[in-house]
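Continuing the batch. This is chain 6 of the set; chains 1 through 5 are on the previous pages. Same settings as before, nothing changed between runs. Recording input and output for traceability.
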Amino acid sequence: MKITFVAIILVLLFFASAYFFITSRSSEQEDIARFVTVSVQRRDLSQSIIATGIIKPKVGAEVKVGAQVSGVVVNLFVKTGSTVKKNDPLALIDPRTYQSQKDKMFALREIAATENAYAERELRRDKTLYEQNVLSLRQFEATEKIFELSLAKLKQTEAEYTYADLQRGYTNIYSPINGVVASISTQEGETVAAGFLSPTFVTIIDLEQLELWAYVDETDIGRIQKGQHVSFTIDTYPAETFEGTVETIYPKAEIQNNVVNYVTVVKIVLPKDKVLRPEMTATVQTFTQAKENVLVVPKNSVQIEGDKMFVTVLTNGRVDKRYITTGINDKKYYEVLSGLSEKENVVIK
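Output for chain 6:
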């Protein structure tokens, strides 16, 4: 009886163990079936730095046009937003005073030229008489002196006429560059007074001469180098990506709210069908490192354990914890330097 009871107990234990093994095995298979995996693959990978930027006009692309003479503005030929070409008229200052001065100096120059011509004829005549001993040396020298004075007077009046002509020309104000009128600070009927600082009429910006200022954090500036490829987006055209190249890194930092940034100047490729304007805000991505055809795994498959990284590998229905060494990374992938082979399946979270 005792032996029979022991046998029954053993049989029950056998069936219980078998049931537990089968159910646990089934549960494990179900868990494995629920895993989502991806294959280790090869692809091009690039590492980048994200920064905020602003579109700026290049040096010389923004010109403040002023007046070099004083007077009343009688005509203003442009308005804000007008497109202008180099040497297009912008404004006219009342020219009457300057025209009158020019006419006066023209008349004085003509008188001086006539007097000089007469003095020159007298000099030639007296020189002949002096050589024939008809005229004394003293009389000849006096005639020569009169000629020299008339010549000096002619040069003076010519210089004064040239100055008066320039002043008259300054009443016409022309555009020095191609561009768009950004602002107008003087209106028709106003009197401008030209002094040490020329009063500004209009500000013109050449929209073909723009650059991008990227404000890079001090922790990242060490990885920025001249010639690196840049892509950026602006709020006005959120679906468009624009391209550029790092051109200059300013040595002096800009500090705002205790945040240290360095200005990186980007030479941009202007789009043909879109208009970029100064002070537009940009999100800038500078590519600091790039590799081609490297092994990668998704970032959501990698877990961190202390100072190590590992992934879960699924092989023939079994899961295996695998430590890996990584290289560069972007928003989605890690480069795998060691620990995995191409086409192995890793579990993603």
